[in-house]
Amino acid sequence: MTDAAGAGRLLIRDLAQLVTPAATVVPARGAELGRVDVLEDAFILCEGEEIVGVGPMRELRALDGDVVELDGRGRCAIPGLVDCHTHACFAGDRVDEFSLRAAGATYEELHAQGGGIMSTVTATRAATEDELVAAVERHRGWMLRSGTTTFEAKSGYGLDRETELASLHAIRTAGGVATWLGAHAVPPEFDGANAYVEFALREVLPDAARLAEAADVFVERGAFDAGQARRYLTACRDAGLTVRLHGDQFTERGAIPLAVELRARSVDHLEATGEDGVRALARSEVVGVLLPASALFLARPMPPARALVDAGAAIALATDFNPGSAFCESLPLVCALAATQLGLGPAEALTACTLNAAHVVGRADRIGRLAVGYTADVVLLDAPDWRYLAYHLGGPIVADVVVAGARAELG
Amino acid sequence: MTDAAGAGRLLIRDLAQLVTPAATVVPARGAELGRVDVLEDAFILCEGEEIVGVGPMRELRALDGDVVELDGRGRCAIPGLVDCHTHACFAGDRVDEFSLRAAGATYEELHAQGGGIMSTVTATRAATEDELVAAVERHRGWMLRSGTTTFEAKSGYGLDRETELASLHAIRTAGGVATWLGAHAVPPEFDGANAYVEFALREVLPDAARLAEAADVFVERGAFDAGQARRYLTACRDAGLTVRLHGDQFTERGAIPLAVELRARSVDHLEATGEDGVRALARSEVVGVLLPASALFLARPMPPARALVDAGAAIALATDFNPGSAFCESLPLVCALAATQLGLGPAEALTACTLNAAHVVGRADRIGRLAVGYTADVVLLDAPDWRYLAYHLGGPIVADVVVAGARAELG
Prior knowledge:
eight-stranded parallel beta sheet; homodimer; disordered N terminus; 16 strands; globular; alpha/beta; 22% strand
């Protein structure tokens, strides 16, 4: 490879399989979700940060000049995975709470011991911005080892001006797509959700809108109701942010109708979504982001993925990585859960965490496919068949990761 | 380290935590299951294949002569994990069947397409013994990366004399504890289960008994009934083998009463076990081996783990690694499932896949604890708290593995 940044070439050759979503409309929905192109004995040619060639080995022409080669024998290439829903910016952990819950402790007992989301808020407020950057970078390293080359991360463990903005800075510094989850919970120093929303919009939004690409709100009993969410998201949209919602995680509280009304990019969770919600989402442009690792972690019902896809709704898959309800950054594990718990085939799962997830983070023109002109983000699976991504539950299937045309150190 | 085999010393120092089961009775049951000793700022000293010292750093005395040191800072040591139930000797895979099932195919459709256990039997019979050794070694490498230092593996994909014996040879060659699962399914060339059991006992048992340590049988509708299992296991016991059973996976067919009657070492699966079975197991010496990754993979109910432990039954945890119903070799993932799906605390899960699993494979005097005199099999977790073993769902928590006093190459 030449020394000139962006000018080097990388040839991934002799791949057992090369697989890419084949949907013609983005986000993919219905039967389009499960359409993938599979090339056998294939190559990918990258130049600088871009893919400049993809095809069967027999069509590979002789290359002049310096080219770094990566051996693809016995491996399958898929697009770099895109995690479109994480809470990767936090300090501390919740392993005490996890252990108590595993042994049967109730939420009340956990709350009495200082557990729950506010314990992470306390730890995150106590961290410096450098410590938050280090935390997000550590989490990013884990994600990379699992094949995630693009990740979204939300603030939401600050809930004060300083920590929310520091969190968004940290996420950007660590290379994440930043979402301002200003309305994650109501911190105890405020007299209710309305007063907190008032504060957040007045004191935090102006700066948050310069740092984040999207805004998000937790619509749930004990968090924010639909009216408060409408007020928050409308102001965020007016400030130029894409809007997203956490909805229907434990109870249906109007998140889907509000998402449709506001033309939100996504509504995420949906474990409690009923038939009306499925129909409403299917008629809309809003993507349903499903988080089966979170449902598993909390031993909650799985979201109605099959019903959503069959009704024609667009879905994406993400990890929900966070310290309390999904300490899991592995999209391959999420794909295994999709296949075993959600009734999604491997091809549907792949599109849901590549192309459709890229749409959720506003980058479907650049990432989520292995095709000429796309960013050269590639995962090489140590498997004879790309569907091991979902099949090899918890296994070491990520052999190599290429990010923007360069082989990544997996640590 | 000196060159003399077995004479070298390895010091693992400055461990954030060192954790070992503290049960005084083996197998641990009831409250004993959750008793672990946790030492902070600790060391482990190994000499040859054995642990010769364990304690807090302040008690570490100066060591004369050559000692290899391993840095334990920021890491936690647990005993090498013991997988006491796998089907790691097979050729081929079942990813086609997995994909069809994920997308909603019925078992009848799968059968019509050549799926199911007999497809693995066909592939395994077609493999040479060298190919089987290579397969078990590949699977063993995956296990090692997940922290498994001792694994049991069953035959059962041969179901003819030659392939069953070749499978047991291959398991031993690859370092596994061999179990003869001669009664896994009835191959189609036999006229029913009785005729097959007759053949297996007459033609295979005499040699299998020299290669295997235990015998196992699948008690289930469509496989073997309790009468056939009694005949098979009694003959195996008389030939010197420890006896085990697959029971109550889909339906209760008398496996637990038979296990108690025959003083079996274990009865494995138990997803369908009811209250009577729980009580019967609790009154016995038989270990219930729980396989939550298999239940997850097949989207089946989880076994009644909490009820078993609370009733006083001894349990162990294992992966059930196999190509059809649990393509998962990760005991850390099994521990995460134990905590989130089975209601077991991290300490209970740890004892269940170390000390109690060691008992199931007849080695509790040598492995399953970090204590002086035990084999120096150690897993170093890349985590500030050992409970991340269960908490970090699907994460890269195994930093280093020591097998019999030597640091293993994790590939």
